[in-house]
Design a protein that fits this description.
Layout (H helix, E strand, L loop, with lengths): L2 H17 L11 H11 L15 E6 L5 E5 L2 E5 L16 H6 L4 E3 L5 H4 L2 H8 L2 E4 L1 H8 L9 E3 L10 E6 L2 E8 L23 H5 L4 H7 L10 E8 L2 E6 L5 H4 L2 H8 L5 E5 L5 H4 L2 H10 L3 E5 L16 H8 L9 E2 L15 E3 L1
Parallel strand pairs: 3-4, 4-5, 5-6, 10-11, 11-12, 12-13
Antiparallel strand pairs: 1-2, 1-14, 2-3, 7-8, 8-9, 9-10
Helix pairs in contact: 1-8, 10-12
Length: 357
């Protein structure tokens, strides 16, 4: 056995020990669930005795990167399932246990990389949430825990063609999942391309929130987790629709037919989309803009743009100017309102993303 495998084995074993098993959630009426839902969704939305969430409110609470706690029509979901802590433990004021305490009915995975699905297995095992994603997402998430007793639903697999669509319901919510592609660098688009963008790394977060051994051991075994395919989701109830994607890929070059699938979806009130991606160093924020132009939301909320990995990422505020400049290229009658989300101030701030039904 080579030294790389030996070190990898030690990290893997240490990660299992450090991760441990999360405490099970008692669900509706459980004191931890009431407390967690009140914290994530607001006291005006959660019943103080039962923990039930108001059916006439839509609430999203940002938990770093592209993970959101999501209350819709009385149901509670997670969009992705990972709390950042690899290099900056405590920067996001939440834990995987907090997410399990929410007792979500379902977890929706956009893609399988560690910064999107790294806590999904432990959370689903603790609360019994159903995990939705590709077949590869499900297999990898079930493998995260020793005794996976939770259910996973396969929405295609890693070989599914971009543009493949899955329609289903979860409780009162209609859901559409569309296969798209992960962010990736492509050749500069000429003519008319967007200017490259690479924010200068900010290391202050690393100083104020240094990594801990437990955080490293919990995250390190997941660093090699495969993408397993990328999915975009639209959630609909009468009077409201939310569209969420945790990556924005170069569809222009690799799968332009997916834009037509986006355009055929029912109208979108709110789009939460990743703006940070590998193509920004070549084509700036062109790819997020192209998603917006096809989807035509009323409101756009940027995501995957916070400083949870100091040295490679920067604070969300550095995206404000280039994002506004990119949106200025969208036709005025199709240009959405923009609601910037800034780290760390907007973590677990439900008032920023609360909508009436």
């Amino acid at each position: 056995m080579g030294w790389r495998n030996r070190i990898g084995g030690v990290i893997e074993a240490g990660g299992v020990l450090a991760a441990g098993r999360l405490a099970g959630s008692g669900g509706q009426g459980d004191a931890r669930t009431v407390a967690a839902r009140t914290r994530f969704f607001g006291a005006d939305v959660v019943d103080p005795d039962t923990g039930a969430v108001r059916a006439d409110r839509v609430v999203l609470s940002w938990v770093g990167c592209t993970t959101y706690a999501f209350a819709l029509a009385g149901s509670v979901f997670l969009l992705d399932a990972w709390v950042p802590r690899l290099t900056s433990t405590g920067y996001v004021p939440a834990t995987a246990q907090d997410l399990a305490d929410l007792a979500p009915a379902a977890i929706f995975i956009g893609h399988g990389h560690f910064d999107h699905a790294g806590d999904a297995g432990r959370i689903a095992q603790a609360c019994g949430a159903v995990v939705y994603g590709t077949a590869e997402h499900g297999a990898n998430i079930r493998a995260q825990v020793a005794d996976p007793t939770f259910e996973t639903v396969a929405l295609g697999d890693a070989s599914s063609r971009p543009g493949q669509r899955h329609d289903f319901t979860v409780g009162p919510v209609e859901v559409t999942a569309v296969r798209h592609v992960h962010s990736a660098p492509t050749a500069p688009e000429r003519p008319g391309g967007s200017a490259p963008f690479f924010p200068r790394p900010e290391l202050h977060t690393l100083v104020r929130h240094p990594p801990t051994l437990a955080g490293v051991l919990q995250s390190a075994p997941r660093l090699k987790d495969p993408e397993g395919g990328s999915l975009l989701y639209q959630f609909r109830v009468p009077g409201f629709s939310l569209l969420w994607h945790d990556s924005s890929g170069p569809l222009t070059e690799r799968a332009p037919q997916v834009f037509d699938v986006f355009a055929e979806l029912p109208s979108t009130n709110v789009q939460i989309g990743a703006v940070q991606g590998f193509n920004q160093i070549v084509n700036g924020l062109r790819d997020p803009r192209r998603y917006i132009e096809a989807i035509r939301p009323e409101l756009f909320v940027p995501s995957h743009h916070d400083n949870w990995l100091p040295g490679l990422t920067a604070s969300a505020a550095t995206y404000d100017a280039p994002l506004r400049g990119e949106l200025a290229r969208v036709a005025a009658d199709r240009r959405p309102q923009l609601r910037p989300m800034h780290d760390p101030f907007d973590y677990l701030s439900p008032h920023r993303l609360t909508f009436p039904l």
